[in-house]
Fold these 3 entries.
Entry 1:
Amino acid sequence: MPITVVGSIAYDTVKTPFGERERMLGGAAVHFSLAASFFDDVRVVGPVGEDFGERQLDIMRARGVDVSDVERVAGGKTFFWHGEYGWDLNSRETLDTQLGVFEGFAPKLSEGSRASDVLFLANIQPDLQQQVRGQMTGARFVALDSMNLWIDIARDSLVAAIESVDCVILNDAELRQLTGKPNLVSAAREVLSWAPADAAGSGARGPRGPRVIVAKQGEYGAALVTHEGFFALPAYPLETVIDPTGAGDTFAGGLVGYIAAHPDEELSDALLRRAMAHATVLASFNVEEFGTERMQRLTGTEIAARIHELHAMTQFSGAPLQLRG
Ligand code: AMP
């Protein structure tokens, strides 16, 4: 089922202990699209400036991503982000963020984008996320990502946006900050409780509210909390990580893409666990090189092989031992 994603399309300048790149293609919607394109049709919505090249759009087109709703703003400047990582690749410093064309952005989805069955609200101002959500009331599955900045300066709006989606994907620290709960599971349960009382057991298009919480934990993996239960996966163990930028969005692209590709399957924990595995694997490829470099030449065969490995390394057999005590 087609997926629409709304979010940043950016130029990123990134420095890690392993090198640096200036003004490479980035942005949450871009990273998401490239990953989700392995599973289903993707339409990307967002503004770019006059400085954005056809070559950058071609990177998305090459993966079959529909970029016809990328809006080129005359005289505008593309969103720019500058970040730096130390030896601990789990923490980064944002050195500069220039909103550029995002400053006056009022999303207007085309009929084609509105018709998608699945929506991903990538990390943007939560009022914009709500505006987009309001234009896609028929979506079967809606997921949202956000960041500490919006928890700091627009919490009420973010909570309202969260109340209108099915799935919330956040870093574990953000989940704790959002809820004021120090424990990850209780923080996730708190967000699950924000669903309207009449949402439980509602049909696909009935009353909404978060029913799937995913906590990203960087190099430690990711956890899933639903009303049904709990699941967690480690990150795929890589020996070399070059640039973690976009790992979260790539993870989201794998998760949401996998769910989109199973339109006839109920949103059960079994389906979500498989989606988590695909998300984990996609993110692991993304961090192997700078920006979108690795994703541009990734193949389905490589993804399938790594899923197989992840499956093998996260299984253990039952151990029927008569325990003392
Ligand atoms: P991630 O590493 O998954 O958190 O995503 C990093 C991507 O998000 C980069 O490509 C940036 O261009 C983009 N990004 C960084 N800050 C923001 C922001 N405030 N709003 C939207 N996108 C952002």
Entry 2:
Amino acid sequence: MLTLGIETSCDETSAAVVRDGRDILSNVILSQAVHTRFGGVIPEVASREHIKAIVPIYQEALQKADVTLDQIELVAATMGPGLVGPLLIGLSFAKGLAYARSIPFVPVNHLEGHLAANILEHPELDKHHLTLLVSGGHTMLVEVKAFGEYIVMGRTRDDAAGEAFDKVAKLMGLGYPGGAALDKLASTGNPRYFRFPRAVMKDDFQFSYSGLKTAVALYLNKLDPKEFDDKKADIAASFQEAVVDVLVTKTVRATEATGVRHVTISGGVAANSRLRKRLREETEARGGRLFYPSMALCTDNAAMIGAAGFYSFEKYGPGELIANAIPNLKLT
Ligand code: KG4
Ligand code: ZN
């Protein structure tokens, strides 16, 4: 079955063609550069950019996959969580296509899309697994019983992990979104240079990153420009280590509590090199296996939405064309 996936929940306009939830025939992603100078995403600006881009990006996705619209058998689009304006553009476009062609339509939860990126790329991944979902807007530990059946074990009380990366990157002059730039800078620094606070708290699966962000801001305020320049790689590495330490500790704790052996990282922060390495070591040391998506599938893209749409269609059948955008949609 050929699925057309559409993703417009934030500042990426993306369209993809996926066969049977497994083979990516195309995955075209346009990242809106316009927000960089504002240091964050401006929702109204994002909506306008999506309107301009959606048709050409969709056409390019068909062209790259070497298929015509007549061959598409299912259309899937993100319905939430995300920014309401951007969501409505992709969702309305997808519903219009499905209606015009009388083909089924499936609305997709963006978080489920991130989980699906691992299922798509790793056929050997157990249906029952645990995922650490870390993106710009979410930090969650989820036991995936099967596709569509989730137990949320814990989440962040304040900032998401990606948000902490972005805020600290901004303080360090690394641009927006700065997670990838901070990761790169940190790779040349010493993670033990300074011990920033870790909010490991009790025996639970909750996260908190706002204290860490404040601690880094206070630390940076005390430095003169020369000290900052000499030590910025070490500071980046030390901050990253504090984030990764907590993510790894809680994920390992969750695998021990559930006895689940297959673990995945999903969401944009799954691209983080230190997190991938540390969690792999810790998981394998306990006889488990760690999976994460390839770089292109970590951050927002339509291939993961197409795959999630296909799995959802297989299990629950088509969705309704009255499906609306839900900005604060939960994973349930
Ligand atoms: O999943 P995603 O594309 O968007 C949301 O759904 O939020 O995640 C984007 C987040 C941003 O905060 C970005 O800075 C972060 O993922 N990110 C990284 C890395 N690459 C992207 N954070 C740390 N290290 C990276 N290499
Ligand atoms: Zn995302």
Entry 3:
Amino acid sequence: MDKKYRKVIIAGNWKMNKLPSEVAGFISALKKEMPESANGCSVVLCVPATHLAALQKFKSRRISSGAQNISHFDKGAHTGEIAADMIRDLGADYCIVGHSERRADNGDTDEVVNAKIHMLHERGITPILCVGESLDQRDKGLTLEFVRYQIMAALHGLTPEQVRRTVIAYEPIWAIGTGRTATDEQAQEVCHAIREKLREEYGALISRKVSILYGGSMNAKNCAGLLAQPDIDGGLIGGASLKPEDFGVIVREGSK
Ligand code: PGA
């Protein structure tokens, strides 16, 4: 397939876990697990904003840093918010946008997700856009329609070049943190549909360059089958990214 045109990305999503003082120990344990050759595979650690300064010291050609959210406001009177400029100043290369936990817990709407993606591109930070259906939507056969809708709402108004530089993570809500993973075929079907939608809207040259990740209970045991799928270019990993040994297995698989 066209995988050679795309970056393979193994991204950890630490969510609200670990302390800034635990970053150094984690990185030294992870380094022991890293394969000799990256083979074009990038590792991204998406940590809480409070951990970015600690992570910045350990950034390398192979390990990039990411945040999990930014404000959709530029700056100013928004108590408790963190601006894109602030995470950039702490070295964030990536930022998760539209994670289903934020959509559910914090009311991030499609409009807000779209505004955040624009903000990140303007600051040169790569967005990792999360999309995915609920169990109810899957049961009703609405998965592909809903995911296509979410993608178009999130990417609205971006230039084709910005779309090319956006990473998309397909994360079925029913698979997140549940231990219930999408099958290789289910994950491939949706990731393929996302790429087809990008091809329709932005053309083949763009669509074959966008990295599309799978997320939702990916772990050391099931990663090989998922990462072998032609339209899956990596993973967004929650629980298993907290353990260097498990995360290391996934990084090695992504580096094959
Ligand atoms: P999980 O989380 O791997 O723990 O299911 C994935 C995510 O929410 O990004």
